[in-house]
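Fold this sequence, please.
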Amino acid sequence: MAAAAPATAPVPRMKLGYQGLEVSVQGHGYVTMSVFYGPPKAEANMVALIHDAVAGGGTFLDTSDMYGPHTNELVVGKALPGGVREKVELATKFAVSLAVARRARAASGV
C-alpha cells in the first residue's frame, strides 16, 4: 500500500499596502521565463509552473513587459483562464528600458 502524501501547511498570507489587499507571503517572479539566467523556457512548462504555484496557494504573481519583451505577460495570460485569474493578484512593471537596465548592471560590475 502506498504511503499517504504528507499534508501541506497553507501558504501564509499578508496585507499588501493599506487598502486591505491580501496576498501570499511568497510571491512568484517570472523574470527567468524568457530572459536572463539562461535561455527562454518552454511555454507549456511555464504555464504548468504558474498553475502549480496557484494550486499550492500562491496568489502574488510578478512579471514585466520588458521580459521578452512582452513574452512573459503573454505566457502569464495563457495560464490565467478557467478561474485562475480570480485567484491571484498580478504585479507588473512598465516603461522600463532593458538597454538602461543592462548599462546599469554593467556599470555596477554585477
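The mean pLDDT is 85. Strands lie at 13-16, 21-24, 28-29, 60-62, 89-91.
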